[in-house]
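Design request, tokens follow.
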């Protein structure tokens, strides 16, 4: 292994001094442009020394020269799953020999400025997890993958999830199911379509008054009481587990039992929901699957030089994660702590090491 140079940043010139090449030859090899005058043995030595010394290419120089920077710009979402999705993105892209540069979106007004910054940095492609306003792919001038919201390449199948939720509650005997949401945003609109479609397909009533928007709603308590006492609603579909968990507490404080009197089912289930009493039944948000597919798709778009939206946008299927709030039996916890606990409850956690075999009883 080559002795490490004590400097903050290793340069192509320093690598050339070690292997006996000029700076231009080293730069050509490391940038992937190749150099017919550099032997295969010398190229392998250049890569070995660069790896040992932690060489990082000058991205600004690569961009100005029109060469790939091997970086992907990411605008993460603002949900509780954002950190996990960033980890999955970075890990998946590393297998494709890409790294990420991420800039959080504070408000929708920052979006264009952040996109411009990522492009100026020299990102070969952009993944946007939190798109709010209208955006067309070819406006970016680099390949892009939009996750959820308008003009998406990848999305969660919100409508199908709502249909699953309603059908699951119908299976528990509920016929009057209300809908609680935070605001009339993108996902809430799709959930509402699936909810109303499933209720209609079952031949059940679904009044407009059965959908309550809780944001800035000082009259929510009166509306909930009216749904329960007058409309005889027996179950609630909530847009996320925070609303569902707080609804469960509110119901208990007002003398109602969950699930004996009222059932609850929600979207965006988290592992914390398993610790509540009763545990929440939810439609899992496929954070890891969306991030993995976004990573693979942006690499494919870069390779194909595709600036347009995917010809066949993908929707990740919804999956029910049962708890006791709907009336199902309590699910056993497989572990309390195992290399940490992921936020998402989307399914088998592939990042966990295999569980060792249980010791044999003597």
């Amino acid at each position: 292994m080559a002795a490490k140079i004590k400097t903050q940043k290793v340069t192509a010139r320093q690598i050339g001094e070690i292997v006996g090449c000029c700076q231009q030859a080293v730069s050509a090899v490391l940038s992937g442009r190749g150099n017919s005058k550099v032997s295969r043995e010398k190229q392998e030595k250049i890569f070995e020394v660069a790896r040992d010394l932690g060489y990082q290419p000058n991205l600004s120089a690569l961009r100005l020269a029109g060469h790939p920077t091997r970086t992907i710009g990411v605008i993460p979402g603002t949900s509780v799953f954002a950190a996990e999705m960033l980890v999955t993105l970075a890990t998946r892209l590393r297998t494709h020999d890409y790294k990420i540069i991420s800039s959080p979106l504070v408000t929708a007004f920052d979006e264009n400025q952040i996109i411009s910054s990522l492009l100026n940095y020299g990102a070969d492609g952009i993944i946007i997890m939190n798109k709010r306003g209208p955006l067309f792919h070819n406006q970016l001038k680099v390949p892009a993958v939009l996750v959820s919201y308008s003009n998406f390449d990848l999305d969660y199948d919100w409508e199908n999830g709502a249909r699953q939720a309603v059908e699951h509650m119908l299976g528990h005997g509920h016929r009057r199911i209300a809908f609680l949401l935070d605001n009339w945003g993108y996902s809430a609109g799709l959930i509402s379509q699936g909810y109303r479609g499933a209720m209609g397909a079952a031949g059940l009533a679904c009044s407009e008054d059965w959908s309550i928007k809780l944001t800035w709603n000082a009259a929510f308590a009166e509306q909930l009481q009216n749904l329960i006492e007058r409309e005889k609603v027996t179950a609630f579909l909530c847009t996320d587990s925070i609303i569902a968990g707080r609804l469960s507490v509110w119901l208990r404080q007002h003398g109602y039992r969950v699930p004996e009197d009222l059932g609850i089912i929600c979207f965006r289930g988290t592992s914390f929901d398993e610790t509540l009493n009763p545990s929440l039944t939810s439609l899992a948000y496929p954070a890891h699957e969306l991030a993995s597919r976004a990573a693979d798709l942006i690499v494919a778009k870069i390779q194909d030089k595709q600036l347009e939206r995917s010809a066949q946008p993908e929707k990740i299927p919804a999956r029910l994660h049962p708890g006791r709030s709907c009336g199902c039996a309590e699910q056993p916890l497989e572990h309390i702590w195992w290399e940490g606990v992921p936020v998402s409850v989307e399914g088998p956690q592939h990042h966990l090491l295999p569980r060792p075999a249980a010791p044999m009883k003597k």
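Comment from the thread starter after seeing the answer: thanks! The longest strand covers residues 263-269.
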